[in-house]
Amino acid sequence: MGLFSFFRRRKEEKKLEEVVSKYEPESFFTGNKRDEAAIKRYLLQQCETLANVSTDYMNAKDEYEVITSYLNDIQTIENMDEADRMKLSDVAGNIMNLEENTKYLQDKVKRLPDSQYAMLDSNKDEMPKAISRLKENENSRDIMKKDMDYLEGEKLEWSYEKSLIKDEQKKLKTACIVILVMEAMLMIGFLAFFMVEETMIYNIIVIVMLVIALLLLLVLIRIMNNSRDIKQCLVNYNKAVSVQNTIKIRFINVANACDYAYEKYHCRNARELSRDWELYLETVKEREKLANANDDLSYYKKSLISLLRTYRLYDAQIWPNQAAALVDKKEMVEVKHALLERRTKIRNRMEKAYQDMRDTKDIVTRTSGEHHIFTPEMQGILDSVEKILK
Predict the structure, then answer these.
(1) So what CATH class is 116-261?
(2) Residue 160, phi then psi, degrees to nearest 5
(3) From its phi and psi, is residue 266 left (phi > 0), alpha (psi between -120 and 50) or beta?
(4) Where are the domains of the chain?
């Protein structure tokens, strides 16, 4: 464990030396000889740092001056003549009201997507008729769909009734055969009885034969009626098929017309298209109002800038975007407070950059003097930094 800790510590010390060597002065001597190349590299690194710090300082200085100019503008506005101050407040109030109204109108305009607005605008002359035609087509399509469904049910019903009658026909034919067999068996029975008893019971025979004949007649009548009903079922079924095919052709044409309208007008049904058309008509009116509001807003913004320019502000262009501060003193206090905080941070940044420039310049001057190494590039950077420091 101890050996492992020793090697790890050696490894960490080596890493630390590598990192420190990037920022600390290198050893300028190899043995007893001065390493001029290492000195030049070090001085160039310091000069590069000095140039970066000076650039940051100048950028902060410019920003500091801009913020100071904005604070001076606020002071100028607060010290305006009472009449101009009232006029400024009125114009700024109009800007605030118009901006609020413009935002409200923009939100209403956005209810209809731009693509849908463009489509409706390009077809505005035909839209009322197109909506009416689509409603009629949808109504016809729905009615024909119901009619086709009804006829489909009728087809199933006639087909089912036909199958029931056919089943009954089979049973009736079987009944005929059974009756004929019974009649034959009875005749044989009567003949046998006559041969044994040598007496013929005519009354019974007549009654039985009449009953059998009546049953057979009823079955035959039913069979004939069923045959007629089967033919009628077939007629009704074929008629339903014929009418359904006729409706289907018209249904396809009407459905295609609806689909074409859906694709052309970017809608799912006539109700949606009608709603979009109403929104379009409202949007046209709102866009007109929005255009007028924008014109008025542009007029008041120009008036505000023109009034502020008479006081020679540093930047009069920004105040239309801060109209609330021109109306409400509390808002102006917030703007001023934010600028003061920002200027304080920039001043602290400038002070640190200034001190870093002094320290780095002293290091470059001292090191170059000690080793008598000085290049024109270094001189140029030091001169520019000296001007800043003065």
Answers:
(1) mainly alpha
(2) -65, -40
(3) left
(4) 25-80+329-390, 82-110+267-310, 116-261
